Amino acid sequence: MENIYAERIAALRQMMARKGWDAVVVSGSDPHASEYPSPRWKQVEWLTGFTGEAGDVVVTRDHAGLWTDSRYFIQAVNQLEGTGVELHKTRVPGAVLIPQWLSTNASTVALDGLCQSMGAVEEIREALASTHPDGDFRIVDVPDMLESLWQDRPQIPTTPIATLDVECFGGISRLDKISWLRKWMMLREVDKVLLTSLDEIAWLLNVRGNDIEYNPLVISYLLVSQDYVKWFVRKSTFMAPDPDTEDSFNELRMDEVEIEDYESVYFSLSESGSGTALFVDPSTLNYHISSYLNDSCPEVRLSFGTSPVILEKAVKTRSETDFLRQTYVDDGAAVERFLYWLEHEVADRGEVSEWEASQKLTSLRAEIPGYRGNSFENISAYGANAALPHYSTPEKGSAMIRPQSLYLTDSGGQYLTGTTDITRTVPMGECTPLEKEDYTLVLKGMIALSMAVFPRGTAGCQLDVLARNALWRTKRNFGHGTGHGIGYWLCVHEGPQDIRQNFNTQPLLPGMVTSNEPGIYREGRHGIRHENVVLCREAGVNEFGDWLEFETLTCCHIDTSAIITDLLDMQERAWLNAYNEKVYRTLSPFLTAEESAWLRNKTLPL
After folding, report:
1. Please, where are the H alpha helices in 137-284?
2. Which residues make Cβ contacts (< 8 Å) with residue 388, sequence separation at least 6?
3. Distance CA 138, CA 117 (A)
4. How far is 191 from 224, CA to CA, in rounded Å?
5. Residues 491-533: tens digit of each pLDDT
6. Which residue from 47, 40, 51, 49 is spatially nearest to 153, judged by alpha carbons?
């Protein structure tokens, strides 16, 4: 029987033949460069069956390829079987990325300009120009390219909108944020700023929605000038709004934010007078709007750069960090209750499915006041499944967790008072010597990064080696980054900071919240990841400089039963003992007597 995804690729090739296109690029993103798109824009999944969050597809007349990174290599091989789609590995030595591959395989490239950033298309243009110096190439912008093939394609979502009460839950008022942005515009000498990234808009306006699963975002654009703020959103009064959305709109209008229809952004841009300086971020501005500005608004002077909102929202306020500390206590107590439940259920019943465990963890989080859903899809992975860093737990046929080997749970919650992310690798019983050794070496890396003290101006890429050194010494490694920024009731992944080997020069600043999650993955055997979330904070000033350090926010014990104690030095043991003791003292008042006694035993010093 023909594979359904092979059939869809064949239909796309028929379209290509009719149009005269050599290649089609299908993006895994949406018109706002979102990491997690809504179902309408899960075009890669629809076309190929690949469900990973990071992946782009190129289809030519005789080749179809998926480009993705090491987090999804195993998953991609499994999901692409029978589709005719070949895996192209990125972030590995010798990798050939899409622009370079296209430059030697195509002259006419079609793409959905709504779902490709201006910057990404420019990279393709430059690559094609390098192999076609005579200019004999074309990039064709085809918005909603797959619309005619995707018969049951979902609509753009329209979920209710809420506003963030900063007086109760921390943060800065939208009027103060808008005032800050206008001052930045004056210094930059720009007349208008067009924001297209959904988390930047949500942060600036203090609005939240649910247009994208796990991400409290509203699909929209925002145009800010010195005279007005226009929010282009699909929640207008013409679409049967709910009462909460109307209340939110009224609150925004009181702060002089104009509510416009989503599609009218084009008309508003065209109204810009001659010589208007419009600031855009090419990494998030989609190519279709970029082309519209060039073709229909030639009098507008475009100013390019990185949006200032990215850095401003990454540095949490004192009120936000205060709330985050308590949020991680509440979240940690829920995770401890889950781990207690899991251990006893497996002992009593002999096995628990990955799916049941995932659902139980979500139900315990849902009991926390202020809970607004999970911050990403739970990763509930036992044994060999944990070797897939972004394993998706199936509802039916998931593996059974048994009283031996390792179980990995990576999860997080969205709360009115912050966003959480935590991974624990749990020894379910007897572990092999290799499992114990990997478990300990990964933990050494997490502890080393947790204890880091570093001068102001240090970037995450300069600290990444701390999390890898113990693994490198035994010639082991992991392919993903060590740390990512985390939002405040926003996206669980945010920039501009990260901790990884890529040369990101953004310094870590006091107030930034970042994950600390080294790991190791052995295909067909096991996967291990230890993840805490850390807050960058001041560590003092002396004659040698201004110093920073990390405060660990995550509050949940680290199981010591799989540790090879001799592999830990005295400092590492002291850190681990102090951390587990703090977890017990902090969380025991929120647990039952039985749970507290269990946690006491789990946190006894090495």
Report:
1. 166-169, 174-188, 198-205, 243-254, 265-270
2. 72, 74, 75, 381, 521, 527
3. 17
4. 9
5. 999 999 999 999 999 999 999 999 999 999 999 999 999 999 9
6. 40
Does the structure show a pLDDT above 90 at 264? yes
Residue carrying structure tokens 């869809």: 8
- Written as one letter, the residue type at 504 is N
Other CB atoms within a 10 A radius of the CB of residue 372 amount to: 17
Is the same domain home to 305 and 361?
A: no
Q: Report helix angle 433-450 to 460-472, nearest 10.
A: 150
In terms of C-beta density within 10 A (0-12 exposed, 13-18 middle, 19 or more buried), how is residue 604 classed? exposed
Same structural domain, 334 and 410: yes
Residue type present at position 505: T
| Tokens describing residue 47 | 């076309």
Are 418 and 323 within 8 A, CB to CB? yes
Euclidean distance between CA atoms 146 and 26, whole angstroms:
9
Please tell me whether residues 10 and 118 are part of one structural domain: yes
Residue with tokens 């073709």: 295
Q: What is the CA radius of gyration of the chain?
A: 25
Cα–Cα distance for residue pair 485/493, rounded to 1 Å? 6
* DSSP letter assigned to residue 54: S
Written as one string, the DSSP assignment of 449-495 is HHT-EEETT-BHHHHHHHHHHHHHTTT---SS-SEEE--SSS-SSEE
Which of left, alpha, beta for 411 (phi over 0: left; psi -120 to 50: alpha)? beta
DSSP state of 272: P
User: E strands along 201-241, which residues?
Assistant: 207-208, 220-225, 229-233
326 lies in the same domain as 376: yes
Which has the closest alpha carbon to 471: 447, 503, 498? 447
CATH number, position 55? 3.40.350.10
Calpha distance 516→415 (Å, rounded): 21
Q: CA-to-CA distance for 50 and 375, rounded, in angstroms?
A: 21
* Rounded-to-integer distance, Cα 555 and Cα 542, Å: 31
Are 10 and 45 in the same domain? yes
DSSP string, 139-167: EEE-TTTTTTT-TTPPPPP----EE--HH
CA–CA distance from 475 to each of 357, 468, 478 (Å)?
Answer: 34, 10, 11
**Is 23 in contact with 109 (CB distance < 8 Å)?**
yes
Rounded Cα–Cα distance for residues 66 and 56 (Å):
6
pLDDT, position 278:
96
CB 215, CB 305: distance < 8 Å:
no
| Number of independent structural domains in the chain | 3
Please report how many Cα atoms fall inside a 13 Å half-sphere around the Cα of residue 215, on the Cβ side: 24
The enclosing H or E element of 291 equals helix 287-296
Range of the domain at 325: 318-602
Distance in angstroms (rounded) separating the CA atoms of residues 397 and 399: 6
Tens digits of per-residue pLDDT, 136-165?
999 999 999 999 999 999 999 889 999 999
Q: Can you name the residues that pair with 589 across neighbouring β-strands?
A: none
pTM over 0.90: yes
From CA 562, how far away is CA 418, in angstroms rounded?
A: 32
CATH of the domain at 503: 3.90.230.10
Q: What angle do CA 254, 257, 263 make, to 5 degrees?
A: 140
| DSSP label of 393 | -
* Helices and strands (H, E) in the chain, number of each type: 18, 30
